[in-house]
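Section 5.1 Outputs to date
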Amino acid sequence: MIRILLSKKLGELKWTQADLARATGIRPTTISDYYNEIAERMNLNHLDLICEALDCEPDEILIRVPNPEPGVRNRTGFEKPATESKVGI
């Protein structure tokens, strides 16, 4: 699962959602969706504008948290094992 850590970053910088909306030109409702982690997708242009405004990198705003149950299948249609050892690589 992908998490959007915009609320944490804005808190660190003492910025409000309105400050970010004014700085980037992104609609306040869109900023709110990112802030509250209810957005189902993030526009890459928005991500670039946010990083520029907050002087940060995307990995400071977006992180991946492993899902408790795998949702990916391998090419034969069976679920992938939870972990695969890559010994000798």
